[in-house]
Every structure is written in structure tokens, then in C-alpha cells.
Amino acid sequence: MTLRKIRLELARGHEYPEGSSSHGYELVAPLAADGHFDAAEWREVKTRCLVRRFWEGAPDQNGLLVHRGGGWAFDYDKARKDDDEPLFKLDRHRIVEGDYLSVTEQDGVQRTFRIVRVAPFA
37-43 — which CB contacts under 8 Å span 24+ positions? Predict the structure, then answer.
């Protein structure tokens, strides 16, 4: 099993010119040896693919990494669709420290996050 704990922090942008370590996500996801997301393994371990959204000044949100339609998203409440946060081309990006990943958040804004840590998940 290749589950990894991944930490994303808000990258530099208009709101935060230096980025922010107080705004981001921690998630658990299966990665292949080359750092690409492993969708086949996700099917076997999807209940363990958790996400925690942390945002300074707001309570943490906890959910799951899910596949919806043609893409991947963070889902915090199965009964609602308006809280889902799609990931931009998760299946095409390498998830390695120093690279970037974009998330369209609940406010409809797509923000870029820097991958700051990828570690084994027990």
C-alpha cells in the first residue's frame, strides 16, 4: 500500500503575497512511485483517503477525497454538493514536495497550494 500524508499550504497570491502556512489542507491519498495519484488503489482504500481543511479564523473541516463525474474533489458532507471542492487535474499532476496543486474552494475561487510535505501514512 502506498498511502501518503500530503500537506498543502496556500501559495503566493494577491491575498497572501508570501503564501500562508495557516491556510491549507492535509490529506491522505495513494501515490505511485513516481508521485502520481493512484486511482486504482484509491478504489481499494477510499474510506482511508481523508482530508482536513485548516483555515486561520475558521473551524477545521474534515471529509473524504472522492471521485465525482470526471474529476476529484474534497467532500465534507455526503448530503450536500455545495461544500465540495474540486481539485484541478489531480490525476495528471505529480504530488511531490515543491510542486503545486489547485483547488476550487467553496466560495468558487480556484486557489493554488504548494505541496510542502509528502510522507508515508501508517
Answer: 37/72, 37/90, 37/91, 37/93, 37/95, 38/2, 39/67, 39/91, 41/1, 41/2, 42/67
Is the model's pLDDT at 1 over the cut of 70? no
Domain that holds residue 34: 3-120
How many structural domains does the chain have? 1
- C-alpha 41/C-alpha 102 separation (Å) is 22
What pairs with residue 74 in β-bridges?
A: 65, 85
Say which residues have a Cβ less than 8 Å from residue 13's Cβ, sequence separation at least 6. Answer: 19, 111, 112
Average pLDDT over the chain, rounded to an integer: 93
SS3 20: strand
Give the H or E element holding residue 18: none
SS3 state of residue 16: coil
Work out the pLDDT band at 49, boundaries 50, 70, 90: very high
